[in-house]
Amino acid sequence: MMMRSDDEVKLKRFLLGELSEPETERVERRLLEDDELFELTEAFEWEMLEDCALGRLPPEERERVLARLASTPQGKRRLALAGGLAEISRERARGDDETPTAEIVPFPWRRPTPAARARPWIALAAALLLALLGAWLGIRQLGDGTGSAAPATEARRTPSTPPAQAPPAEGERIAGPTARPLDELPEAPPPTAPEAPRDDSAARPAPPRRPEPAVLQLALAVLRGAGGPPRLEVPPGTERVEIQLDVTGYGDYESFDATLRDAARLEVAWRAEGIRPRRLDGGPTLVLEVPAQDLPSGRYELEVGGRPVEGAREELSFQELEVVRRP
Amino acid sequence: VAVKRARPAAFPGPTPEEFEALLARLDPDRDRAGERYEEIRRKLARLFEWRGCDFPEELVDETINRVARRLAEGVEIQTPDPYAFFCGVAFLVYKESWRKTVRERQAVETGDWPTHTPPASLAADDAESRRLECLRHCLDALPRDQRELLLRYHQEDDHIRSRKALCQEMGAGTLNALRIRVHRLRRRVEDCVRGRLAE
Question: Please, which residues 247-306 of chain A have a Cβ atom closer than 8 Å to chain B?
Fold first, then answer.
């Protein structure tokens, strides 16, 4: 959404019914097409109602706002809420409320650090390196007749762990969704695997096959588009869900936390702290492993925070996703 | 004379075939089409509200019905996106509704009707008090940092300057980015309050 300086004036005039009919129709059409512009218009509407509720408007303008935006039952309800929110905000600012304050740092990705400025180049270099490595491995595998290399684009769609995964060695087990630290994970299997030492475990029956998870890949910083939130389809029988978040360029965070909240009920469906990125297909990736049973169909909000080596937790991402469970 | 516009007669909904034709036009994936349908409904309702219509949901129903019917009849939409078609039909529905309202207003103004005075506002006070209670509850249900952002955004008297300062403090880029962020939080709170009031 591109917002020009005169758009704000025009949108407010639209809300007050002061545009000509052709202009109104043009604005309405743009609003139907552009989700963010629509949200911004609703935000302007709220501000006008708030100004009205708090007596900030001259009488004539107040009358116009009341007539245009607060004449319907829905408008009256919004006016009451705008006034109520301002009242509660002031109450709490005066200290009438004992709710502790929190440090708010909601847009850290908008403050480019030197590392962030170099992020695209680092990503490009990593991608080239990976492409070369992948090509070399593919040629080796084809030459050996051991199979074909998966295309790189598919590799990113795969679960972070293979379905028939051997149980991790003692000491590698990490509780919950936490993954192994970044530097402990190999980028790719070695070209020639050393012969495994023979032990008793080889004679044991193979471990039960771990069902393949449903995977959804997301970016940390997102602008909502017109197509609705990303969708995670969960086939029947799925036991776990993997949400993979690319955290390239977020190397200055020691660990991350993630919360999935039911968007309708505002209830936490799943939460994990101390998550460290894994290296998947060359890129550091947060892998959120969520028991599928915790996610019934519906809309969820995913909030991701990062804890820098020094300093307070920062909110890094806030986005919606939809879970659809297949019957 | 202040007149509430009459609630339009209940329109019969689209037939299953009409509804399927509508979904198919919105997106080949039926689930995505369902999402787009819901989004269009919500937006149309707000557009009708902004035009001052008293019963936006009914007008949305009528708009959707007409679009679905035309599509089921095999009408080819000439515009590249379905939004323009919805907009055009919505405008016709709005104009019809407006003409009807004007006729009703004229009828009321020429008649000798007793003036309706709303009853005393005790019930309104109760409702207001309950709404505030729900609002407090829903605010407290937000994660702490989001609640603090929402409250700080609304608490200052010199709100324009303080919001610009908040925007800079958070590195939000533009004031509009901050506005949208806060608006999304407000919508969640609004939905939560509506849900609790309906319980």
Answer: 259, 261, 263-264, 266, 303
Query: Residue written as tokens 């012969």?
Result: A195
H runs (alpha helix) in A34-149: 35-53, 59-69, 73-93, 114-117, 119-144
Contact between chains at A29 and B83 (C-beta distance less than 8 A)? yes
**Chains A, B: CB contacts under 8 A, how many?**
163
The residue behind tokens 């509430």 is B4
How far is residue A228's CA from residue A35's CA, in Å, rounded to a whole number?
9
Token pair for residue A126? 């990593």
Cβ–Cβ of A228/B35 closer than 8 Å?
Answer: yes
Q: Distance between CA A173 and CA A150 in Å, rounded?
A: 28
**Tell me: the pLDDT tens digits for B77-100?**
666 667 778 888 898 898 888 888
pLDDT digits (tens, 9 = 90+) for A108-140: 443 444 444 455 555 566 667 766 776 666 555
CA dist., res. A64 & res. B152, Å (int)? 28
CA distances from A301 to A153, A265, A289, B191 (A): 27, 11, 16, 14
3-class DSSP state of A164: coil
HEC letters along A253-301: EEEEEEEEEECCCCEEEEEEEEECCEEECCEEEEEEEEEHHHCCCEEEE
Determine the Cα–Cα distance for residues A304 and A314; give it in Å rounded to an integer: 9
- ipTM greater than cut 0.95: no
> Which of A285, A288, A215 has its CA nearest to residue A250?
A285
Q: Which amino acid is residue B123, in one-letter code?
A: A
pTM over 0.80: no
Q: Please say whether the beta carbons of B150 and B185 come within 8 A.
A: yes
Is residue A106 within 8 A of residue B149, CB to CB? The reply is yes
Give whole-number Cα distances, A75 to A43, B7, B55, B193, in Å.
14, 17, 12, 15
Does A43 contact B183 at a Cβ distance shorter than 8 Å?
A: yes
Contact B46, B4 (CB under 8 A): no
Q: Residue A247 and residue A260: Cα distance in Å, rounded?
A: 18
Mutual orientation of helices B175-198 and A73-93 as an angle, nearest 10°? 110
